[in-house]
Amino acid sequence: xxxxxxxxxxxxxxxxxxxxxxxxxxxxxxxxxxLCESIPSIPNSEAQVAATLESLKFVFxxxxxxxxxxxxxxxxxxEILVGSGIQxxxxxxxxxAEANGWTCFPAIVKSxxxxxxxxLTSDAVVMTxxxxxxxxxxxxxxxxxxxxxxxxIDGREFHVSLWGNGHIRxxxxxxxxxxxxxxxxxxxCTYDAKFVPRSxxxxxxxxxxxxxxMTMNIVFSNRSPSLLTGLLDAGITGESTSGCRTGSxxxxxxxxxxxxxxxPAWHVLRNWVGTPMVIWxxxxxxxxxxxxxxxxxxxxx
Length: 301
Known about the structure:
By secondary structure, the chain is an alpha+beta fold. The protein contains ten helices and 14 strands.
């Protein structure tokens, strides 16, 4: 941006007073590239950042406050997807250390109000009811929030990024290569795989762009005769349903039927690529998916 004549200021967010941080910048003269995932010492505050920018009348990149809040509510997102005809793995919510009648294994156990795979390890995949009860109890104790139990889909996993308002475009999709792992519970994109360089899961979970194979034995709709058009079809439907703007990202896992899990949040797009939108737009495939730390508290004007 500087090269083409636009002044750019990088603002570290060090406390909760965003209004004071931005008081020297007029909203009619500045656009904010919102790279702030949280306000220091305030958990799950990404939506609060967007709400503050909205209240100050700034134009900014990424989704608005309600959509960012939605991205942290897995149960509500899944209900919206199902209501829009997008298939998603079967699931249930657990507020106590009980199986709630769950009998489908393998299953995956997650906190219900987190994103970016926080707390997700290979131990999250359970094979028996006893393992399920133990993991549900553990997540309840650690996260202090309800637990989401899902059918674990051991298939091809694609990371699909989209951007645009109105006319949505898909960036080159990546496929996770789990061929180094023989056990099903290792074949998932954990927190360490995304954000801890040189960890065992990072070394074994290799993103491939383009995907390993451009063929698939399933279709996402009657209008989706190929892998790329299938991913695009499912992606655009999910983005439109969730109310995303500027950019969004999804993980789609294939089995005998199409399965999707939506994460409508700008920060995930950036985390996979590792650099702000205005930079990565032309160089998406050259950036490692774990090149940026999990906690990034910056506003760029």
